[in-house]
Amino acid sequence: MPEERTIAAWLTDMDGVLVHEERAIPGANEFIARLRDTGTPFLILTNNSIYTPRDLRARLANSGLDVDEKSIWTSALATAKFLSDQVPNGSAFAVGEAGLTTALYEEGYTMTDRDPEYVVLGETRTYSFEAITKAIRLIKGGARFICTNPDTTGPSAEGPLPATGAVAALITAATGREPYFVGKPNPMMFRSALNRIGAHSEHTAMVGDRMDTDIIAGMEAGLTTFLVLTGSTSREEVGQFPFRPSVVVDSVADLVGRV
Fold it and tell me: Which GO terms describe its cellular component (predicted)?
């Protein structure tokens, strides 16, 4: 590590770091247990805006990981908090699923398709042509365009599925309006997570498996960054990027002793 910082709080990605294909990655349970037992503030971050924290808690439990839903921070939650800070108790036309609509409701937002202040695009497994058409018309009518995350594809058993970023590109082509993306790699998501747990960037670490989202966003937010090799990025690929993580480790198991 270039400089030894005291790490008092942790942010960690979920897929590729803690779980892979619904199975816990070796060491993940010990890492989470260590954070919990020492009372160390932490949040699990995900760009997935489909599910509520309660849904994701159940998914992690099925993988053998015991995590409180309050320790999960999604791009939908970050988006809802961002909108609430911008326009408290505003209105939005949301294209997404329960993870997004629930987060917006809990921040006091009204869902409407009549002159909303925002069109908010999240991830869904059933993008509706009617809903996308409505979003295009509302944006052309003056609604501001927000997206939960820029991921262009998502995984499925049959192969990649079009995700938020791909549908956002369609809407941009039809409207000429670029969206504001809240989720990773926007460091905004990390700053909202830090505020959530009352942590300071100088003493917080980010654990991720992707250089182009987790590591760059953590770096731009001023965090110590740990790249694990259990997900999307191999050790050989690290050198292809113009930036580097603070530390590269084989897996989250190597971080248990650092908590």
Answer: cytoplasm
